[in-house]
Specification:
Distance between the termini: 31 Å
Largest sheet: 5 strands, parallel
Low-confidence stretches: none
Number of helices: 8
Mean pLDDT: 92
Number of strands: 8
Oligomer: single chain
């Protein structure tokens, strides 16, 4: 609700009439908490839903208590597909170095860029990033990259450093050596996701080693199981009378 400057009714499907089935698939609260007592309008919107799921498992009980409905945990929609579907549409950026670090940051990205500079110095690799403004000390700004090129930037990178949930998701799907830096207002989605698939060790902390091995095979198995549960929820939510 911070992004929408309050509870925008459109995001709660308030335009749908009472005869319509209303389903929430994996919305994210992002910052880890919300005081529903301060937002009675949201509680009223939630009560209109036939089925509710949320992206963060840790937040499901909170939404359940507010809505009075059973709330499932569901994976982000990107995770309903496997890596092969994204691999097929990923496109390399023209003129890119063969080896590089990809730094993708939301917000001011200061810590992401700081870690990227340090890794670049250690590995003697250039840094590619996406930012409306050029960032001092980083080599190539890929601002304006298409969705396909964004995927390609992750797929072809030697290392990925990010504070973005979706850059984290695609780093996992493409089995990259990556580091996720938690943002103050959206850390719950990163922590829940990486913990659920056994890759919580990819969250940045003191002494973090980006070259430490990651069990991508185990993560893939866990992701597949979570995706199947989410598909079952969606099928049930759409077809129940």
């Amino acid at each position: 609700i911070n992004c929408t400057k309050g509870a925008d009714p459109a995001f709660f499907l308030a335009f749908a009439d009472e005869s319509k089935r209303i389903v929430a698939y994996a919305p994210s609260i992002a910052d880890g908490s919300i005081d529903f007592a301060e937002h009675p309008e949201i509680v009223n919107y939630l009560k209109r839903f036939d089925c509710i799921s949320v992206r963060e498992k840790s937040l499901a009980p909170m939404v359940e208590a507010a809505s009075g409905k059973e709330v499932a945990a569901a994976v982000d929609p990107t995770l309903l597909l496997g890596g092969a579907e994204f691999d097929a549409i990923a496109k390399p950026l023209d003129g890119l170095e063969e080896k590089y670090i990809f730094a993708f940051a939301l917000g001011d990205g200061a810590e992401v860029y700081e870690q990227a500079r340090a890794l670049a110095q250690k590995k003697r690799l250039p840094v590619v990033y996406i930012n409306k403004q050029n960032v001092s000390g980083l080599e190539r700004n890929a601002y304006g990259a298409s969705p396909q090129e964004f995927l390609g930037l992750i797929k072809n990178a030697d290392y990925v450093i990010t504070n973005s949930f979706h850059a984290t998701v695609f780093s996992v799907l493409f089995k990259k050596q990556f580091c996720t830096i938690k943002m103050i207002d959206s850390s719950s989605r990163m922590v829940d996701f990486l913990s659920a698939i056994g890759l919580e060790g990819r969250l940045f902390a003191d002494g973090f080693d980006i070259d430490s091995p990651a069990d991508f095979a185990g993560a893939r198995e866990k992701l597949s199981a979570l995706a199947e549960k989410s598909k079952e929820y969606l099928s049930r939510a759409l077809n129940e009378e």
